[in-house]
Amino acid sequence: MASETHIVLGTCHHDCPDSCGWEVSVENGVAVKLRGNSEHPFSQGELCPKVNRFLERVYSPERILYPLARTGPKGSGEFRQITWEEALGLVAERVHSVINDFGGEAVMPWGSAGTQGLIQMNSLDRRFFTKIGSSRQVDSLCGATAKVGASLTLGSPLSSDPMDIEFSQLILLWGTNTRLANRHLWPFIEKARSRGAKVVVIDPLRTMTAESADVFVQPLPGTDVALMLAMMHILIRDNLVDHDYLEKYTDGFDELSVQVAQWTPLRAAQVCGISVDDIESLAHDYGTIRPSFIRTLIGAEHRQHGAMFFRTLSCLPMLVGAWREKGGGFARSVGSYAAVNVDDSVFTVDSLSAGQERRPLSMNEIGQVLNDENLDPTVKALFVYNGNPLVTAPNAELIRRGLEREDLFTVVSEQFMTDTARYADVIFPACTQIEQVDVVPAWGHLYLGWNEKAIE
Is 343 within the bounds of a domain? Predict the structure, then answer.
């Protein structure tokens, strides 16, 4: 009897701007092939090397497929297989004990962006932790600083549609290695180049994208804001600003002019390690070529004062009125559009948390939190999912010390035995994307992706 093959459509869930569409071929309940969906308007059938091999992850012999309970010292990685009933009972008993003895806020959730769907990342965990009255996870390992910085200038973190970059005549790729980290945007940039667009890469590293640029500007690490201020200085000095746009749509131009007056090209050149001529040329291109599009991503926000990078950068398109035209403006993450345009009330739990004032705990400071004996109550139970904080959060040794606490009950949901999972008391197996249903918003384009469950 011939095997029956059917195709299941899905969306990549990784924390990447592209959120590509894919197709899974399934034969007799087994996924035999995963390829790009050629009808997806952004990814257009191409997948990155990582996701092209996704089925190797699904069927890896190293996957965790059953609940595990710790048998050895924390961190030893010594576990025994247990049943779901036993695992759920053990966790329920310990968490009830913590809540009864110390209160719900002694429970800390820690979840990141291992999957970025509205259901698997932004819904089910909130329902559970709201119900038990746990502490609230706040902050972000990346996006929070950029949102704050851009919002201080623009009023919100919303920005241009990245796909409109194909209509630009000047493209500034600032601090983003687009050909690797946002690879599906590159064909849209090539369309713009075919119409005569100029591509400028500004990056302290000579990346693959820099090698493909028409102009490469290489400031010293951490000096981008000085370069932006000097560009604004030149735009105002040489009357390359759009006065009509500034008068109608902005506030604070006079105050900004005073601030940037001190940032001469010479001063910026000395700070940035690039020539005055390069700064002058970049600013004049930006002030005279229309439409102009600035594209950046998340690298700059992963540093102290990262918000100021985005606050300053988003001033540039306002000075020249770049927002007027299709193919103009500024874009980082466009994920905030989902919050504006998607009715996610079926996913969120505002009604459940009405009237609650649950304690906020920063995911970025998990090491400090787990070791803080002055917290009232101290954290006695930790749930980790969609992430591996021992590797991805700051102060790894401090986190390790916290995870080693014998009075801390740790539950981890994972696909593999990660560094963090080795310190768990109970591990639950986590699904891969083709084993679950989800709705996936993108932060590199404006499409919302449906992910159908392909296999059990």
Answer: no
For the entire predicted model, the pTM comes to: 0.90
For 322-332, how does the pLDDT look when each residue is reduced to its tens digit (9 = 90+)? Answer: 999 999 999 98
Burial class, 365, CB count within 10 angstroms (exposed 0-12 / middle 13-18 / buried 19+): middle
Beta carbons within 8 Å of 134's beta carbon, 6+ residues apart: 104, 105, 107, 108, 109, 358
When pLDDT is averaged across residues 27-39 and rounded to a whole number, the result is 96
**258 burial class (0-12, 13-18, 19+ CB within 10 angstroms)?**
exposed
**Phi, psi torsion values for 271, nearest 5 degrees:** -75, -40
Interval 437-446: pLDDT, tens? 999 988 889 8
In a domain, 456, yes or no: no
Domain count, the chain: 3
Place of tokens 């679950």: 436
**DSSP bridge partners of 438:** 451
- In angstroms, the CA 204 to CA 362 distance is 30
The enclosing domain of 224 has a CATH number of: 3.40.228.10
352 falls within a domain: no
